[in-house]
Amino acid sequence: MLFYDSPNPAPNPRRVRIFAAEKGIELPSQEVSIPKREQKAPEYLGKNPRGQTPILELDDGTVIAESVAIMRYLEALHPEPAMFGTTPKEIAAIEMWSRRVEMILMSAVGAVWVNTHPFTAALPGRNAEWGEANRPRVADAFRFFDESLKNFEYLAGPDFSVADILLLTTADFADFVGCGMPDDCENLRGWHERVSARPSSKA
Ligand SMILES: N[C@@H](CCC(=O)N[C@@H](CS)C(=O)NCC(=O)O)C(=O)O
To answer: Which intervals hold domain GST C-terminal (predicted)?
Structure first.
């Protein structure tokens, strides 16, 4: 298999790298440069018509796009340590928190990134007003996660899971974009220190 990867600050490929590091999986990789727009080259579009990274190409030519789908595939191949939960309650909690990170936080950070950041200035259809309107939504989302982390060591409960990987990569990307977690989010900051201390976070 071949993992088509893009370096930091791209948050979605990083999800998979952290996930693989947690499981001790070596992923043969090929870099796709986003600044050079290699993700829009015809050969790459033939693999992923969305023109985005990451993708995982299997030896039989199957292409898996979407970082969560790639992680689910790797989880099925390497079930230990379980990152998507094992009991029905764990599985549901991890899914709930993962979806919240994607829908509440990532969507707002993405709107700030795409509509306000100098690195995306050349994108068509930018709407700076909409980008700015999303900054308070990002802060609200961080405060929501801060509140929930009052009771648990990790986002979905007592154990580290894929939900933490989604939140970590999104929080670090938000910081890069210039809409990082508010100062008053103490639980979130403690959580961020804990997960950033894991060797996988260096991925
Ligand atoms: N939902 C997709 C999002 C993929 C995505 O947005 N990838 C970014 C890199 S983090 C990308 O390729 N951006 C360049 C582009 O959209 O042209 C996933 O989870 O894999």
So the answer is: 87-203
* DSSP line for 70-117: HHHHHHHH--SS-SS-SSHHHHHHHHHHHHHIIIIIIHHHHHHHHHH-
Q: Which atom of ligand 1 is nearest to the CA of 66?
A: 20
CATH number at residue 68: 3.40.30.10
**Domain shared by 46 and 102, yes or no:** no
- List the structure tokens of 86: 């094992």
pLDDT of 88 reads 98
Q: What is the per-residue pLDDT across 70-113, written as a single tens digit (0 to 9) for each?
A: 999 999 999 999 999 999 999 999 999 999 999 999 999 999 99
Tokens of 108: 């707002």
Q: What is the pLDDT of residues 145-189, one digit of tens each?
A: 999 999 999 999 999 999 999 999 999 999 999 999 999 999 999
* Ligand 1 cavity residues, CB under 6 Å: 6, 10-12, 34, 39, 51-54, 66-68
User: Of ligand 1's atoms, which has the minimum distance to the CA of residue 34?
Assistant: 14
- Asked if 47 and 98 sit in the same domain, the reply is no
Query: Structural domain of residue 172, as residue ranges?
Result: 88-202
Provide the token pair at 135: 């900054």
Residues 136 and 166 placed together within one structural domain of the fold: yes
Residue 48 lies in a domain: yes
Q: Look at residue 83 and tell me if it is in a domain.
A: no
